[in-house]
Amino acid sequence: MIVTIQPSAISGNINAPTSKSSMQRACAAALLNNGQTTIENPGKSNDDLAALEVIKILGATIVASANNYVTISSKGIQPAGTEMNCGESGLGIRMFAPIAALSKSPIVINGTGSLSSRPMNFFDEIFPQLDISIQSNNGKLPIQIHGPLQPKDITIDGSLSSQFLTGLLMAYGKAATRPVTITVINLKSKPYIDLTLQVMKHFGYDVTNNNYQSFLINPVAKTVNNTIEYTVEGDWSGGAFLLVAAAIAGKITVTGLNTLSTQADKAILQALIDCGSTISIQEKQVEIGSPAVGNSALRAFHFDATDCPDLFPPLVALAAYCNGTTVIEGVNRLAHKESNRGLTLQQEFGKMGITIKLQDDLMLVEGGTGVIGAQVHSHHDHRIAMACAVAGLKASGPTIIEEAEAINKSYPEFYKHLNKLQVTLTAKG
Predict the structure, then answer these.
(1) Do 186 and 278 fall into the same domain?
(2) Are residues 258 and 402 in the same domain?
(3) 311 lies in a domain?
(4) Which range of residues forms the domain containing residue 45?
(5) Residues 58 and 193 grouped into a single domain
(6) Which site among 68, 230, 371, 419 is 20 to 30 Å from 212 CA-CA?
């Protein structure tokens, strides 16, 4: 699909998309719950749908209602098939692999798109320590595992991703028969672990966080026929693009964003404050717009995105309109996303006249020089497509985005929401 964004001023009210980070964790917890879980405000992105398919393969029964609820019934891990496919979800593959390993039956773990080329060496390293046999494709998909996982005191490297730790914590929570400890070296994306622990607590698990250096998982009483209700949060990752759009090109109110959330990407608020946008932060909504008259220029800012690397694309779109050189830390976290995002952002924003320099772990964005309407490509990366669309709102001409349907991975209503906010756009194909 090709989407063309015309320069537009935005206005109106919009509800934030559903958090796929929250939704996928809720799906995993519902699978492990011996009983019935009702999920309110379920996500509909490709990653969310993939999570629902995975838990169905692993034994859950799913009933969707017309009033924005999904009911999941489960008796634990009882695979209904021999292969689970996580689509393109990095969280899905890393979180569900340890959970699937709770089964005594062998299972093949697969994925699609860029997930097929992402390194999964940590499975080869850690799973044998937990009595799980594994056969991988030189550390990549497909992977065959054969459990059941036996919770043991282990040490893992948290520098690549916190997502594998999320899966281990959930699997340990389900299977632990005595207190066990997971020690973590150099953990990244700590706020995402906060979200994991929040979901686990809601579902009755007992985990002690020792300053993110180790996690003590205590056994819990095994009960049946549990009835649990869980409401999925609004998504700060997708909401960040809406907030940046308003800072660049208008004024809007975004509802459904919990400012008390543990989501890492809530940190976008600090960048929006630092760059000089007009912003009012309330408990359940954010009102935001371009700088007030008399202070019309956004200014360059410095931001550490090490713990929230998904913010790089909206931050770059914002920085393109900020006078001066914006410095963003954490580039090393970008290599193994849907695309190599550091290089992809450099390439696509270069087409729009914005110079981006990569220096070790830093990204330097030279903003305020004018954004050119251009033909760009998503590289099949949802966040690149959204970043280019937002940057096009005050470009010198139309911005044409190829493979624009990549947004379906996380935010399938993104273009509809832009249109609702008075953005002029067309979609073909």
Answers:
(1) no
(2) yes
(3) yes
(4) 20-218
(5) yes
(6) 230
Q: Does the reported pTM lie above 0.90?
A: yes
Contacts of 141 (CB under 8 A, 6+ apart): 93, 109, 110, 111, 115, 116, 120
- Residues marked as catalytic: 310
For residues 53 and 200, membership in a common domain is answered with yes
Tokens 């390194």 appear where?
A: 119
Shared domain check, 160 and 114: yes
The single-letter code of the amino acid at 16 is: A
Q: Is residue 225 part of a domain?
A: no
Residue 192 belongs to some domain of the structure: yes
Partnered with residue 249 across adjacent β-strands are none
Give yes or no: residues 243 and 207 share one domain.
Answer: no
pLDDT tens for the chain, 429 residues long, are 999 999 999 999 999 999 999 999 999 999 999 999 999 999 999 999 999 999 999 999 999 987 899 999 999 999 999 999 999 999 999 999 999 999 999 999 999 988 888 888 889 999 999 999 999 988 889 999 999 999 999 999 998 779 999 999 999 999 999 999 999 999 988 999 999 999 999 999 999 999 999 999 999 998 889 999 999 999 999 999 999 999 999 999 999 999 999 999 999 999 999 999 999 999 889 999 998 654 569 999 999 999 999 999 999 999 999 999 999 999 988 876 666 899 999 999 999 999 999 999 999 999 999 999 999 999 999 999 999 999 999 999 999 999 999 999 999 999 999 999 999 999 998
Q: Residue 400 has which token pair?
A: 């044409």
294 and 417 share one domain: yes
CA atoms within 13 A of residue 11's CA, in its CB half-sphere: 1
Of 389, 388, 276, the residue nearest 324 (C-alpha): 276
Q: How far apart are CA 34 and CA 75, in angstroms?
A: 5
Burial per residue of 81-105, b for 16 or more beta-carbon CB atoms within 10 angstroms, e otherwise = eeebbbbbbbbbbbbbbbbbbbbee
Q: What tokens were used for 331?
A: 């580039």
Q: Please choose, from the candidates 14, 9, 11, the residue with its C-alpha nearest in 3D space to the C-alpha of residue 286.
A: 14
